[in-house]
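Hi support team,

I submitted a single chain yesterday and got back a structure, but I'm not sure I'm reading the token output correctly. Could someone confirm the output below corresponds to the sequence I sent? I've pasted both exactly as they appear in my results page.

Thanks,
R.
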Amino acid sequence: MEKKKTVPFNGTPQQEAELLKAINELKGQKGSLMPIMQRAQDIYGYLPYEVQEIISEKTNVPMAKIYGVATFYSQFTLFPKGQHKISVCLGTACYVKGSGQIYDKLMELLEIGGGECTADGKFSLDACRCVGACGLAPVMMIDEEVYGRLTVDDVEGILAKY
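Hi R., thanks for writing in. Yes, this is the structure output for that exact sequence:
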């Protein structure tokens, strides 16, 4: 399995204190793992290995179980999101009109794969299945801005705005 490129973990002592407080509040309750993981993601923005280790150590839940929950539920992410979140629609309408090539071009220009974040933390790239703008296919979003009727040649100019 290829390791995803990501920015280094930069947790602060304040974040760790907040996480430990949340764990202490919740750990005695039945079914507390999900709420603890949700709080951790709220605190850090994602669930890096280091945070999973803290949760495992403080709750006596094996790392394998924590990782299994984190990778099973789509609400959790193991990688940080960039300052600008790029999402390319790979749903049927967009895909048949060339969104796959747009996604490939973004990976090339940003030097990251899907689900990854650039080393400077500026961009993260994800695929999605539909943004509800099929009439504008192919479509990508950067943050909340929708870009439609794209060609591969449009991508570099759009990124330059950010």
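A quick pointer for reading it: The helical segments are 13-26, 33-44, 49-59, 63-72, 92-96, 99-110, 152-160. Let us know if anything else looks off.

Best,
Support desk
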